Amino acid sequence: MNRALFINNGDVWTNQTIEVENPATKEIIGTIAKAGQGEAKQAVDAAASALKAWQRKTAAERSEYLLKWHELIRRDEKTLGEGMTMEQGKPLEEAIGEIRYANSFLSWYAEEGKRIYGETVPASAPNKRIFVQKQAIGVIAAITPWNFPAAMLTRKLGPALAAGCTAVVKPSELTPFTAYRLADLALEAGIPKGVINVISGDAKEIGEAWMNDDRVRKVSFTGSTAVGKLLMRQAADTVKKLSLELGGHAPFIVTQHADIENAVDGLIGSKYRNGGQTCVCANRVYVHESIKDSFSEAFVQAVKQLKTGNGLADHSTIGPLINQSAVDKVQNHLRDAQEKGATLVYGQEPEETNGYYQTPVVVMDATDDMLCMNEETFGPLAPITTYQSVDEVIQRANDTPFGLAAYVYSTNISEAFTISEALEYGIVGLNDGLPSVAQAPFGGMKESGLGREGGHWGIEEYLEVKYISMQV
Ligand code: ADP
Questions:
Q1: Which residues form the Aldehyde dehydrogenase domain (predicted)?
Q2: Which of 68, 127, 259, 300 has the fewest CB atoms within 10 Å, i.e. is most exposed?
Q3: Confidence of residue 371 (pLDDT cuts 50, 70, 90)
């Protein structure tokens, strides 16, 4: 498949292309036109031209477009899922699950856009009135990663379009096709030209073009902390509003009051979904010393059931990782942990070797000086450590610059709340390994990011507050 850029509802071809690889086979599955600064500007031109007419539509009209888009994505969920597995690697069932999750942001914001309420405030003088309105911020740029090629896009475009913004979008060059397929369906849904524009190319070049363009009023980014910090610096010159969803390093705490079966289920979901490549994946596991053996035995039994392989094969529950450096990072964390005294309790060589495969690995006796206990592994390695007291586990869990997601398993309500409230994390899964849904606020504290996506919080990110003071 060879794809053009998607600008103003039309194809834009360029002289250069980017090859896209299937991580399950290392085969090139297609190419995508490579944009430069010129196309980056062209995309903003299109979004800027479309802005007024899109803003002037009623919320109900914009809602109709989003719902039509939602309907078409549902119609094509299987083909979209297959396409995603081919470029991203995740098992087909998970890919279709992501398409549904992605789509839930369109239907949810199609409704929420109708509830962008203003306020009136009592004035300080009898002849004055205070009106507060909310207005779309303008053209927005969405820069998205490869781990959720559909959901990270709709999580931004759903609220942005519902609020009356138009968008320029840059998906990851590793997984671009899903974004273009979604754009095709937006076109089929009748979304006017210029409202959504998708380009691919050199990330730094496109990023700089958009960050320097004062017509882009807001940037919503999901990706690494390093790039998020760079964008924050670049946003200063034109004072853009920013939403940043950056790296996590989630602690998973299993107390002596946990329901062990539930905790094992939760950890399997949280740790191994998408092969461990989500920013809310459990990265380090803290188990109360009194249940160390019972928990770890049950966990290893469950891990043994996971099957690593091509995501299009029926039996696979873990697909390949995205590329060789992802596999190398897991191997590096594993080697480091073993050198520092961790015990490998489960791990096997992958059966398939054509792609970037990494089978699940479990290590015991992890210590706080190991790499895997300090930075995101972004792969299927589960390091288990023990703790003795609630204060100790809170301190160790919070001892990191990251603050995205944390998990607590406890059936003791007082203990569960004490830990949940003390955790310096934007999201706490309390007896819940998979907390992300369209109506809830997703986002991090500390260096994990700024702003929230999802729920009524998510649409505020695309709105400006305007105060009209009237003298009567
Ligand atoms: P990951 O490790 O998840 O790939 P990145 O932060 O590298 O995280 O990538 C997330 C998104 O940011 C991708 O779309 C990528 O192309 C883009 N990106 C990478 N570097 C830059 C940059 N300098 N400016 C703007 N976007 C960038």
A1: 16-468
A2: 127
A3: very high
Q: Which residues have a catalytic role annotated?
A: 245, 279
Tell which one of 172, 204, 321 to mutate to probe ligand 1, the residue whose CB is within 8 A of the most ligand atoms: 172
* Digit-coded pLDDT (tens) for 205-245: 999 999 999 999 999 999 999 999 999 999 999 999 999 99
Ramachandran sector of residue 190 (left: φ over 0; alpha: ψ -120 to 50; beta: rest):
left
Check pLDDT > 90 for residue 311. yes
Neighbours of 415 (CB within 10 A): 16
Reply yes or no on whether the pLDDT at 200 is more than 90: yes
Residue 350 has pLDDT above 90, yes or no: no
**Backbone phi, then psi, for 37, in 5-degree steps?**
-60, -35
For 236, other C-beta atoms within 10 Å of its C-beta total 10
Q: How many CA atoms lie within 13 A of 68 on its CB side?
A: 16
* 203 Cα to the center of ligand 1, angstroms: 6
Instruction: Work out the angle between the directed axes of helices 225-235 and 203-212 (0-180°, nearest 10).
Output: 30
Q: Is-contact 89 356, C-beta < 8 A?
A: yes
How much distance in Å is there from the Cα of 183 to the middle of ligand 1?
A: 20
**CA 207 to centroid of ligand 1, rounded, Å:** 9
Give, as one character, the DSSP assignment of residue 305.
T
